[in-house]
Amino acid sequence: MLSPRTSPTRDIVSLDGLWRFALDTHAGATPWASRLASPLEAPVPASYNDLFVDTEIRDHVGIAWYQREVRVPRGWAGERVVLRFGSVTHAARVYVDDRLVAEHTGGYTPFEADLTGIVRPGTEFRLTVGVDNRLTNVTIPPGTVTTGSDGRDRQSYLHDFYNYAGIARPVRLCSTPPTFVADVTVVTGRDGAAGTVDYRVETAGEAADATTVQVRAVDETGRTVAEAHGSEGAFRIENVILWQPGAGHLYGLVVELTADGGTVDSYTQSFGVRTVEVRGTEFLINGEPFYFTGFGKHEDTPVRGKGHDDAYLVHDFELLRWTGANSFRTSHYPYAEEVLDFADRHGIVVIDETAAVGLNLGVMGGLTGAAPTPTFAPENFGGPTRDVHARHLRRLIERDKNHPSVVMWCLANEPASNEEGAREYFEPLVRLARELDPTRPLTYAAVMFATPDNDLIGDLFDVLSINRYYGWYVFTGDLQAAEQYLEQDLRGWARRFGKPVMMSEYGADTQPGLHSVWDTPWSEEYQSDYLAMYHRVFDRVPEFIGEHVWNFADFQTSAGIHRVDGNKKGVFTRDRKPKTAAFALRRRWRGLDGRRPGPAANG
Prior knowledge:
Helix content is about 20%, strand content about 30%.
């Protein structure tokens, strides 16, 4: 699915702003049939949970309704009209006046509704969206809804971030010609000083067979550097400027459909020329070893929840640059397309992850002490869940395949890879990912319970990403013992699988302003000492290729005795103020510049 862009043949109208809002308990039986009788308004994009001082809204389980009027530009006569949502968390039903025009499940990927023939240029229609936040064992991520003795539904889930809901990403009304470019795929390589580009263009519409495809690559000044003809082909860019970490040079692939000597449709797909490869125990970008420094992040900000915000986007990337980070993981779901576009332009490397978090019933057993049930049993996640996971994986790769910043696909966070049934679950997903994109390596983030001795799926993947919390959840406050066990653990993974190893999560909850001269958990000094201990170990393991601290910034979680106002493992507070550890990371990372550190790198 192409990202919406204006062109000589395409226009876009933003539908962001204030929409009428009501919970289903206050919206009537058919809220799409008339104007919502609600005094509430909610901004789009944003999550709705933290906007209002109403517990009923924050804790709501079920459907909430958004509504607004939309006027179709009068100049769109004869054009195809498309309504596009960046995401709706977690499922949506979309109505134009009284008509259902789209249904979608999956809270972190875009979807469209073709309104051609349903709406008329120059007229207005009522747009109503039902947003369903419920998670079950056949959603990604999974969850459970129960009904209490008071008749209220309650949502539980296995992931450690708040279940924000709403229309979290931009909504746009778009026009295209009736015959149009439907999809573009770009795959790049290198041949000496030249860049090689393979492309594929898919067209649609009644007259698609009567059109001719022409493509040309343009540089950042608009100068044409290569041309080709046909819906599939290849070309070379001589003296190519590579897309590199820290230097996000982009080209544009201008795709034009022509018929009878005229342009039918025009769409420009940005791309960067770069290669990615795993060779032995090294991760190579453009043939050079690359060492990941950065974070696991979250789309999480005060008031907005998971709502996309360009101001936070810019500021977060500035803080990444300030620390010396060169990369991040989209934990634990695909981020907004605007985030990846920004990473492309600024040379930040991305590990792109599906929303498959919580596929591990052993985690809940570890927290509660109850005996866990088998994660991959048919009644849990071993049945239709994998088919849903496959659909999410397909949508992720189809959406993000052209982003040069994306160098690796992460299929899941902390699955029960040590349990029976894990291999049967993941083997078809790995095969699907390689079919959809054979150019990028694959990884998954391994949970603490999965060890080099009992993990069942590590050999299927290209890079071993390990989540570890020695010194926090295990050996709390004892960094000496934690260091010993961490090194044994990492060396064990490297020895068994002979693949690159990176740390996809490591961190300690830290209350800003708490200080201590001792190794006191929750203090800012302990967080810095904890990270320094991990870095000493990383520098001693030859197969090690990167470090992603958990987390970039504090974030909201569900309420409970395990969390006080959310997860505090951020090196920045939720409103982006640095803790002491941020300065320690800056001293370490700014001297690395994508190179593997040695023992002297510890500061």
